[in-house]
Structure formats: C-alpha cells, structure tokens
Amino acid sequence: QVQLMESGGGLVQPGESRRLSCVASGDIPSTYGMGWFRQVTGKEREIVAAISWSGGRIYYPDAFQGRFTISRDNAKKTVYLQINNPKPEDTATYFCAAHEGDGLGYYYFAFDWWGQGTQVTVSS
User: Fold this and answer.
1) What is the Cβ-side half-sphere exposure of residue 123, based on CA atoms within 13 angstroms?
2) Coil, helix or strand at residue 27
3) CA 113, CA 33: separation in Å to the nearest integer?
4) Average pLDDT across the chain, whole number
5) Is 43 helix (H, G, I), strand (E, B) or coil?
6) pLDDT (tens digit, 9 = 90+) per residue, 43-94?
7) CA 14 to CA 123: how far, in whole Å?
8) What secondary structure letter does DSSP report for 63?
9) What is the mean pLDDT of residues 13-37?
10) Which of 3, 27, 32, 54 is the most buried (most CB within 10 A)?
11) What percent of the chain has pLDDT over 90?
C-alpha cells in the first residue's frame, strides 16, 4: 500500500509564509503525479495545485495562482506546498494526494492515494 503523510500545518500568522510537506512511502509506483487539496469546514474539497512526475507540468486553479507554489523532491519522495501571504480564508485542512503515471491530475477522483491531512489555521 501507499502511505502519504502531511506535515507543516498548525497556527499560521497572516502574512507569514508556510511550507507544507507530504512524504510518500510504501509501494508507490516509480512514476507518479502529486497534488494538494484543501477543505474548508462546511465546504467541498478543492484542488489547490498539482505537479507532474518530472515537475515540468504544474497546475493551479485561478483562485490559487500567485500565492501558492507546489514543488517536489523525488529523491525524498516529497511534495511541498508553499503558502505565501497566508490569509484567514486559507484556513482549512490540507491534503496531499498522488496518482500513478507521469500526467497531471486535475480532479480529486483522478488521485489514487491520499494523506490524512494537516490543519492550517491562519489567525493572528
């Protein structure tokens, strides 16, 4: 099985950049895309960013273009999400996800494996 574990959440000061991490382990395929989703209490899960295996293809919905940066380190089997200028409305549970292949995932159902999530609370 594949295990994904997020870290880096917690209380975040508005305007103070924060980088989330997600480490993959277990029987993950040799080639896989990864992504970040978030879910605000009472709302549906939404994609924040996605990145292909090589890192050469990246996707951000318009709402997340600019302040969010996704990156990965395949040697460490880790994907990162940096939140610049975090705002209170960014408060949510952030999930990382992965899918087999070298493509780019756009929808939650395209991803095969999920982490448990890390809570990010942006508040002063």
Assistant:
1) 8
2) coil
3) 11
4) 97
5) coil
6) 999 999 999 999 999 999 999 999 999 999 999 999 999 999 999 999 999 9
7) 6
8) G
9) 97
10) 32
11) 97
